[in-house]
Structures are given as structure tokens and as C-alpha cells.
Model the fold of this input.
Amino acid sequence: MRRNYTIYFLLISLVFNIAFLGHYVYKTVQFRNKTQSINTAPTTRQNFRVKGKQNSNKRIDPTMEEIRLKNFEHRVNFFKELAKEAPDYQKLELLADSLNITQNTLEKQTTNHFIKKRKAMSSEDAQHFYGNLYNHAESGCKRIKERQKRRSE
Done:
């Protein structure tokens, strides 16, 4: 009788392992196919790179990096003030305002960058690149709406 339980246990374990491996392979193939469809044409990728003096593959815009750093510094100061035993709420409001301003500046710079790069792209490259961004944003909106719908039920 114990031998039968051992065999049943081994069979169930084998089934779970096969199911896990099948799921892993499926997700890996799905991820690879998704990233291959997202990849843009080489000309588009090169258009989005910032030409640096030392590294031509450098993608980071120095002005954007400076704004991001400022944004993180404001965020650090904001949370540091919140962590205090007796936070200064007027200072917190000022920090929140400066955090919002730098976040807004980041968003403006990003949208201006997209507009500038769109002017330099062919319509085919733009349709491919911005179409993928549109699809990504649309799926994010659907996911949020579905989550809100589930929570309201």
C-alpha cells in the first residue's frame, strides 16, 4: 500500500514539473516574441541616441539627467521630512510643490523630445515606434480599468 502512495506522489510530482516547465517555456517564447515585435528599426533607435563626446551609444540626455537628479533629491528630502518625529508641514508642502514642478518639467522635456524626434523620422518609422508606445499605453489603461472594475464589484 505504501508503495502505491509513493508511485502516486511521484506521478503527481512529475505532472507538476511538466506543467511548470511548459508554462516557463510558453512565457519565455511569448516574451521573446513580444520583445522582437517591440524592437524598432535600427534607424529609429539611432535617432533616439544622444551623441556624446566620448560615447556615441550614450542614450542619456544630460539635461534630462540633471532634472531627474533634482527630482530624486526633492523626493529624498520629502521622505526624510516625513520620517521625522515631528515633521514641518509647511516645509512638506514646499517640498511637494518643488517635487511636482520637477516632475512636470520632466514630462514636458520628454514630450518635447518625442515631438522633436518625430519630426526627424519617416512616417513608417514613426508609425512603428509610436504605434508600439500607443499599444503599450493602451494596454496599461485597460489593465487599470479592469482593476478598478474588479474593485468596484
